[in-house]
Amino acid sequence: MGIEVVSILLLFSTFFVLLAYGVPVAYSIGISTTVTLLLNIPFMPGITTVCQRMTIGIDSFALLAIPFFILAGEIMNRGGIANRLIQFAKSLIGSLPGGLAYVNVLAAMLFGAISGSAVAAASAIGSIMTDRMEDEGYPRPFSAAVNITSSTTGLLIPPSNILIVYALASGGTASVAALFLAGYLPGILVGLALMVVVAIVASRKQFSRGQRVPFSQLLQDFRSAFFSLLLLIIIVGGIVAGIFTATEAAGIAVVYALVLALVYQTISIKDVPDLLLNSAKTTAIVLFLICTSMAMSWLFSFERIPQLLTSFLLDQVNNPIAIFIIINLTLLVVGTFMDITPAILIFTPIFLPVVTALGMHPVHFGIVMVLNLCIGLCTPPVGTILFVGSGVAKISVSNVIRPLVPLLLTMILVLILVTFFPQLSLWLPRLFNF
Fold first, then answer.
1. What is the pLDDT, as a whole number, of residue 366?
2. Closest of 405, 312, 310 to residue 358, by C-alpha
């Protein structure tokens, strides 16, 4: 058995054993990377190399966008923007049968897109909508399931932190602007697909419908939500037009969100230190995950893991459709026990060479990968959004699983469509010459 095979086995066995013992993902990645590297080189050079690679891994101008978008999302979560979006969505589609469930989906899509965070969308929208839906006869587990799945659309619809992370992991082969444009159609498609499931359930359960609001009320609610929605146009439009970079757009989002919250008088100056502290804590967690994952990604290259996997799949399977299915199934399994950020950073350098060798565009693969792992965020045992949504709804995870299944199956159907119809991801980037 060659040293490369031994290194690969040691790396993954150490990583999964540490995860099984409850060691946090970032520490599991860092420890397994260090142990494997020490198999190949002496102690001090090995430790130094890991530290260097962790430092180099976060030495990126593009990554500055992440703490800014996190802070912007924190401000929006506290700033009452969710209430305005919910009221607008309710006026727009609340009169349909099962209208409040549609409102949940649409509001989560809008808030997730504006904040760039699935966790923020699940907590903000869920905390408001769950009780309202229960008061109008919706089962609490169903409300939680709708909120959990629809919250993930914000990871596809820009601005999205995770698409910035993928752009970094792809080594520059996929630009942030192209990924932002590519995420629109798949993200909207997921939202529409969830609405179809809601329509079927609403018809069978005969859920109530809200009162149709007059056009004047719809116009008033649109005006109330207008400046929140305008942030999407400013950020994405500015990036696509080349006015500013994704990092500069994130800074603009912070200033815009803060001014908006101060004007709405939902945040005061005395709240700012607490907002900065919470954002700094979240940023520290995310960046530590990124720097340890980047060290592991470098080790993959050092051990030639991507090249070995590419050669094996192309030689042994030799069927592009079968390879795409294998990769999707692998990512679906990975998503059930690993959070989306380390999964993107670890598996992008492994699978990207394989799919590009088969002619798949890096931007297309990025959207497929993110959508795949979004499904994992909604599934046990480690699904972050599953636990956040259940916690907000104040029900156990086991009670959510049954109404969650048809929604997850629908997301998988959309994943299949996005995988085998590249134009769903690539049409908009190509339209704008990205």
1. 95
2. 310
As beta bridge partners, residue 388 has none
**Residue 46: CB atoms within 10 Å:** 18
The residue written with tokens 């601005």 in the block is 159
> In angstroms, what CA-CA distances link 413 with 46, 126, 242, 373, 375?
45, 25, 35, 14, 11
* 414/186 Cα distance (integer angstroms): 8
Tokens at residue 116, please?
Answer: 């760039």
pLDDT at 4: 64
What's the distance, CA 375 to chain centroid? 10
Q: Taking a C-beta distance cutoff of 8 angstroms, is the pair 428, 181 a contact? A: yes
The H or E element that residue 276 is part of is: helix 272-302
As given in the structure block, the two tokens for residue 249 are: 């757009």
Q: Which H or E element spans position 191?
A: helix 176-205
Do 33 and 329 form a contact (C-beta atoms < 8 A)? no
pLDDT attached to residue 305: 74
Q: What is the pLDDT of residue 3?
A: 59
The reported pTM is: 0.83
Which portions of the chain are predicted below pLDDT 70? 1-4, 43, 94, 208-210, 381-382
Distance CA 414, CA 432 (A): 24
- State residue 210's pLDDT score: 66
Residue 94: what pLDDT?
67
Burial call 320-354: b when 16+ CB within 10 Å, e when fewer: eeebbeebbeebbebbbbbbbbbbbbbbbbbbbbb
Joined tokens for residue 264: 């709405």
User: Helix axis angle, 176-205 relative to 397-420, nearest 10°?
Assistant: 130
In angstroms, the CA 34 to CA 399 distance is 41
Please tell me the chain's helix, strand, coil percentages from 3-state DSSP, rounded to the nearest 5.
Answer: 80, 0, 20
Three-state secondary structure of 13-80: HHHHHHHHCCCCHHHHHHHHHHHHHHHHCCHHHHHHHHHHHHHHHCCCCHHHHHHHHHHHHHHHHHCC
3-class secondary structure, 316 = helix
Q: Per the structure block, which two tokens stand in for 38? A: 């020490």
